[in-house]
Amino acid sequence: REQTVDLVLAMDNPALIMLLDNPERLFSGVPVVFCGINGYSPSLLRGRTGITGVFEDQDMAGTLRLAQRLQPGLKRVFAIHDYTETGLAVRRDMDSVLPQFSGQLDIEFSPEIPFTALEEMLHSLTSGTATLLIAYVTDPTGRVFSRAESTELISRASPVPVYAMHEMRLGHGILGGMLLDGRRHGARAAAIALDILRGAAPSDIPIEPSLSTPEFDWVQLQLFNLSLDSLSPGSQVINRPVSFWQ
Length: 246
Known about the structure:
Blueprint: E1 8-11, H1 13-21, E2 32-37, E3 51-55, H2 60-70, E4 76-81, H3 85-97, E5 106-109, H4 115-123, E6 129-135, H5 147-157, E7 162-164, E8 176-180, H6 182-197, E9 208-209, E10 212-217, H7 218-223, E11 236-238
Parallel strand pairs: 1-2, 2-3, 3-9, 4-5, 4-6, 6-7, 10-11
Antiparallel strand pairs: 8-10
């Protein structure tokens, strides 16, 4: 209560919503920089001023197009999300890209079921299918997963390639995707915060989307017999064997 706060960093949807729900009680008049926000639209800010930041623009459409290129016979996508506030926001983002794939892909979303039941659904997936991991940190029983744990468990249960949109899942079983790097995302939010602390007005700093790059795991490409030649230019590949000369 006795502290003077110069700036608030709001990370993830619940933090920003808490500030928006309590404009007088929490940090009244203090500039806010947000990051890690899913399902962003200008209406989310309710006309409030003094707020700017970086939102998560997960390239779901780009990742689905990568899957179509790598799996020419792809007909069905099983998209996994939890039913937290963030998980539902990501689901809304996914809904907005579905029209682009109408008549091309049958996209099914995971129901709100315990993880053990989700594993059974994954086991039943067949060829011509891909798994898209969009958000998963908890199940209806209250079981909580780290991103690494949920990625490893889902990838292990899925007999078909798993794609995602977060770089921190790479190396834990996903094949790849258009991946958002949380370190770059956070660094950009920090740069905006420093600009404001140096005197810039939040209203003069546009709210901006995150950037994604195509990244893949060589181990998973080999597992599903997929060629590096099918990757788009500029793709990054981890776990590629290093030759003697390299």
